[in-house]
Amino acid sequence: MSVAFTAPDGLRLHARDYSGPAKAARLPIVCLPGLTRNARDFHPFAQLFSGGSTAPAIEPRRVICLDYRGRGGSDRDRNADNYSLTVETDDVLAALAALDVPRAIFFGTSRGALIIHLLAATRPTMIAAAILNDAGPVIEGAGLAQIRGYLTRLPQPKDWAQAVEILKQAHGKAFPALEARDWQDMAEAIYVERKGKIVSDFDQAIVKQLSAIDFNTQLPTLWPQFDALAHVPVMAIRGENSQLLSQATVAEMAKRHPGMEALVVAGQGHAPLPHSAGIPTTIAKFIERAAL
């Protein structure tokens, strides 16, 4: 179900709510996408967890997937400075208030994982568990530069078949494990058809902000915010070929949070597809062990 709500500054935002009365007793999962991505990234995952799975390890529960401002079904912001982690974290809080979610399991991919860090520092009681998909307290400059590179170079596809081929050319080396259906899912999540054209479903002003980053300097870290997750179960997912989240960072995360569970997804880069490689079943078992 599509849900519209209002940000603190009045912008109209959008979320997908996969819910039902039978799932009310279990904590919901709130899914937060990456920098230029949207709620569709989590659609197959949300279907599995909201009752579309026959796997006995997955108990149905409510799943909420958000579109940040400037992405997916949310309005574009005329002020590009508002495409920031702090503003988007406030938008997440507005969404949870509008959808009556006082506490949840948070699943964040890339930028979504960073937002979870900020929530841990500002609203720790809202987080029952955190699943960090290919991002942590340290963001590698090489990985962020790679993201900026392909976002600024990707051509506009003429049709859906070309959209798939463009993504394969851009990400094929980092994602050798993906099959045809996976590439199609990725294309359908990233692109949308508007006025007969296949276009990226985000405000291009978001990409322009990356041009201001100096990759020759140390990027800010979020270790204090990560340490604020010490009271909850944490799972860290890393793509085997990721350049954004390093093995060293995951090792330090595990040292600081001894109970943290880590998963390396073979044959994938930044960031592993949430519904692929057995990730949903692994997450379901993580949630079961946490008794949530």
Verbal overview:
This protein has one domain: Rossmann fold, CATH 3.40.50. The chain is built from 10 helices and 10 strands. The protein has helices spanning 43-52, 85-98, 111-122, 141-153, 160-171, 180-190, 205-210, 223-227, 247-256, 279-289; strands at 2-6, 12-18, 29-32, 63-67, 104-109, 127-133, 191-194, 197-200, 234-239, 261-265. Strand 1 and strand 2 (12-18) form a beta hairpin. It starts with a strand and ends with a helix.
Shape: globular
- Which class of secondary structure composition applies to the elements? alpha/beta
Give the full name of the CATH homologous superfamily: Alpha/Beta hydrolase fold, catalytic domain
H-E order = EEEHEHEHEHHHEEHHEHEH
CATH architecture: 3-Layer(aba) Sandwich
First CA to last CA: what distance?
24 Å
Helix count?
10
Strand runs, count: 10
CATH class: Alpha Beta
Largest β-sheet summary: 8 strands, mixed
